[in-house]
Amino acid sequence: MTLVKIAYASMTGNTEGISEILEDAFKELGADVERAEAEDVESDFFEDANVCVIATYTYNDGELPFDFEDFYSNLPEQDLQGKVFGVVGSGDSELYPDYFCKAAEDFEEAFIKTGATKGHETVKIENAAEGEDIDHLKAFAKALLEA
After folding, report:
1. By C-alpha distance, which of 89, 97, 103, 86 is closest to 133?
2. Which pTM does this prediction carry?
C-alpha cells in the first residue's frame, strides 16, 4: 500500500486544518497516511514514504516557520529519488502580497534538489481552506497518488 507522509507547521490552525483535509483525502483514496507536526519530524522523515507532502505557512516577510528551519536546511541533502512530492502553502495575500506562500515555493525548490518527482503544482491557499480550496486539495491528493 502507498504510504503518504505529511509534515506540517501551523501557527493559527489554518495549515493544520489543511493537513487534516489532505490526510482524509489520501485515506479516502486508499493510502496509508502519517501526519506529523514540523517540530516532531527528523530530516529522514520521508525515507520510507512513497508520497511526501509539506503543508506550511509563510511567516512575516517570506520566512519559513521556525519549526521547519532545520528540516528545510537538511531536505536538499536527502535522496528521495523514486518518491513523489507535493507542497501546500497557506498565506495572507492582503498582509503580505509580495511573500504570499513563499515558504511553500522554497520547499518546492528544496524538494527538487532531492531527486523526488513533483506530483502536482504547489497549492496556495488564502488563510484557511474552504469551498473550492477543499476541492483543490482533494485533486492534489489524487494527482500525487497517480504520479
Report:
1. 89
2. 0.96
